[in-house]
Write a structure and sequence with these properties.
- The complex is a heterodimer of chains A (331) and B (300).
- With 331 residues, chain A is an all-alpha fold.
- In chain A, 76% of the residues lie in helices and 0% in strands.
- The longest helix of chain A is centred in the middle third of the chain and has 38 residues, at 189-226.
- Chain A has helices spanning 2-32, 37-47, 52-63, 71-83, 98-133, 138-151, 155-169, 189-226, 229-237, 241-252, 254-270, 272-277, 283-292, 296-324.
- Chain B has a single domain (76-297), classed as MetI-like fold (Orthogonal Bundle), CATH 1.10.3720.
- Chain B has helices at 19-28, 31-49, 84-119, 123-137, 140-147, 156-167, 169-182, 186-193, 198-235, 245-255, 265-293, 295-298.
- The chains are: A mainly alpha (331), B mainly alpha (300).
- Chains A and B meet through helix 1, helix 7, helix 11, helix 12 and helix 13 of A and helix 4, helix 5, helix 9 and helix 11 of B.
Chain lengths: 331, 300
């Protein structure tokens, strides 16, 4: 148990260091950008007749640092602000704090992607078990081939295909926007229904492009568990197939939980395409529109947020695995 | 890919089959691999020869927008009246060149750093692995989007370079762990005893043992690079200067309103079909590469 704590502390310290590295990266990214957006913003404000001090204050609020100051002072300022959860202010949303915008976008991403992720996990598990159980027959081969094929289709193509087939060729689902704008948001049946209907395609795109990977991983895991002595012993003892399946599934699913935790981290950034294609106002869409509007503070904020989520999901995966599998107590 | 039982052929130990015989045998043993090879050759020829068949600026025809397929336009026309087939063929060169270069850089950097950090554990290896950790943790696509603001990867070379520079970490890790175990094996010990230099040991003793894995990774990196760059163009992150499949998807999605028109079916589906069949070809061909280079699979 103590080993686990030491491990956890080490990982958290490592994670914090990684967050600092990424923060520095975004800082220098803004700095080497063509046309130096900070300087440009300052010049524009000065031209609009603002006093130099005022202009500097405003630019500082936006980007977290002022031009003209020595680089290391700008850097320290920026890091200091980020440590206080101040990611600057958005340009395209005229002065709204970046963190506020990101917090608004977060629930959309979480709801949509988490549903898609869990759906693909469940379907993938079932397919994987079926493919492993029938691995010497045509049906099993077919399932594996299907999984390999779907695994190879990137998310954006799946999303494009679904969007085109089900909203343009065969108009059974609405396209774009997270809900029907004509309905007032609230806890009423019409709104929730519209929300669900608009979520079906993005979730399906996520689930379909993800489940192949799960199925392949589960198939491999089940196949290796089937070769274990304790399964053969169970077969020889005449344990009923249902209980055998429980033995197998419990052991085979273990390594997949780690991947699941990792995917939960990556989900914050992974839905960039799906959100863009379906106009779903999540984190990925935010990053995309920030990029198009050249809203650098917002873009860097989104990038930072996505990365932090991934780093801490990594740590969670690591810890979870040690808890789930008592055989792993190394550190 | 599971190792299927090999067709048993008597191997004459005095006259071992040449590499090309082995390669040919590995490819023709399964029909899927032949199909994969065929697809690859088809697209490579398209990328080499195709653009020569068309003028630099493809003609547009505003009075023939979204035309259905005819003999003159086998895949119909796009929103400007340009032949979709011509767009596909001329666009293939960029896609294949940059994907090939990206895989080359990925594999080159990854293998080199993996071998070095595996054979010389110490400070340098530690630094290399920390950098690899950085690239493995930071989500790749958002990183590319963020990088695109400072780095204009419009040309195939710079696109390949940026994909290689961000994509090498996984391979470096795998090669490093293989090297760590290989350097303790008897044959490496023997080579050391014979007085071979470290460089010779790494290049001629350790590297060939990682080669099958590296070659497979090369093909996977090609697929990954195709998806990544098509994705970047699709998002419009990279300034649209050339014609390629990603740009086609971008224009179809964001500007031409093809998403809302059933007439644009072929225009939208053609690049998707190309990307998917190309990656299918690569996946089908993978097993053959493994068998060609992996002596353990060959002499069963």
């Amino acid at each position: 148990m103590q080993a686990l704590w030491i491990r956890l502390v080490r990982r958290v310290v490592g994670g914090v260091v990684m967050v600092l590295v990424v923060t520095s990266f975004t800082f220098f990214l803004v700095h080497v950008m063509p046309g130096n957006p900070v300087q440009t913003e300052l010049d524009t404000l000065l031209q609009q007749g603002m006093s130099p001090l005022q202009a500097q204050a405003q630019v500082r609020a936006m980007y977290g640092f002022v031009p003209h100051a020595p680089l290391y002072i700008q850097y320290v300022h920026y890091i200091w602000q980020v440590l206080h959860f101040d990611l600057g202010r958005s340009i395209s949303y005229s002065g709204v704090p970046v963190l506020h915008l990101l917090m608004q976008a977060m629930p959309w991403t979480i709801i949509m992607v988490l549903t898609g992720l869990l759906l693909s996990f469940v379907i993938g598990m079932i397919t994987g078990v079926l493919a492993a159980a029938n691995r010497n027959s045509q049906a099993g081969d077919g399932l594996s081939l299907l999984a390999t094929f779907l695994h190879g289709i990137p998310q954006f193509m799946m999303a494009l295909l679904l969007a085109y087939v089900f909203t343009t060729i065969w108009k059974i689902f609405p396209f774009g926007a997270p809900y029907n704008a004509a309905i007032t948001p609230g806890w009423n049946g019409a709104f929730v229904g519209s929300l669900l209907r608009h979520a079906i395609l993005p979730v399906a795109a996520y689930a379909l492009s993800g489940f192949g990977g799960w199925a392949l991983a589960m198939r491999g895991s089940v196949t290796s568990v089937l070769g274990e002595d304790y399964i053969q012993a169970a077969q020889l003892r005449g344990v009923s197939p249902l209980i055998q399946l429980r033995y197998i599934a419990r052991n085979a699913i273990l390594p997949l939980f780690t991947i699941l935790t990792l995917s939960i981290g990556f989900m914050f950034g992974g839905a960039l395409f799906i959100e863009t294609i379906f106009d779903y106002p999540g984190l990925g869409y935010m990053m995309y529109s920030a990029l198009n509007a050249r809203d650098y503070p917002l873009m860097d904020g989104a990038f930072l947020m996505i990365t932090i989520a991934v780093i801490f999901a990594n740590i969670a995966a690591d810890v979870l695995y040690s808890v789930l599998d008592p055989r792993i107590q190394r550190f | 890919m599971a190792a299927a039982p090999m067709a048993t052929r008597p191997v004459n130990p005095w006259n071992p089959p040449s590499f090309w015989q082995i390669a040919w045998h590995a490819v023709t043993r399964k029909p899927g691999r032949l199909i994969g090879l065929g697809i690859l050759i088809f697209y490579i020829l398209m990328a080499i020869v195709g653009p020569m068949l068309y003028p630099r600026m493809l003609p547009i025809n505003p009075s023939n927008v979204y035309a259905p397929p005819t003999w003159a336009h086998p895949l119909g026309t796009d929103f400007e009246g340009t032949d979709v087939l011509a767009l596909i063929i001329t666009g293939s060169r960029y896609v294949l060149t940059s994907a090939g270069l990206a895989a080359f850089f990925t594999v080159g950097i990854g293998t080199m750093l993996g071998l070095i950090s595996g054979y010389f554990p110490g400070l340098v290896a530690g630094v290399i692995m920390r950098i690899a950790d950085f690239f493995l943790t930071v989500p790749g696509f958002p990183l590319l989007v963020a990088l695109s603001t400072v780095w204009h990867f419009g040309s195939p070379v710079s696109m390949g370079l940026v994909l290689g520079l961000t994509g090498w970490a996984g391979l470096a890790r795998a090669v490093r762990s293989q090297t760590l175990s290989l350097r303790e094996r008897g044959f490496v010990e023997a080579a050391r005893g014979l007085g071979l230099t470290r460089f010779e040991i790494i290049v001629s003793e350790i590297f060939p043992n990682t080669a099958p894995f590296v070659a497979m990774h090369f093909l996977m990196a090609v697929t990954g690079a195709i998806y990544a760059q098509v994705g970047l163009f699709f998002l419009g992150v990279v300034p649209v200067s050339t014609n390629n499949w990603g740009v086609m998807l971008n224009l179809a999605f964001s500007q031409a309103g093809a998403m809302y028109s059933t007439r644009a079916l072929l225009y939208l589906l053609s690049p998707i079909a190309c990307i998917m069949s190309l990656s299918l070809g690569i996946v089908l061909f993978l097993g053959a590469v493994d068998e060609m280079l992996n002596p353990r699979l060959r002499k069963v």
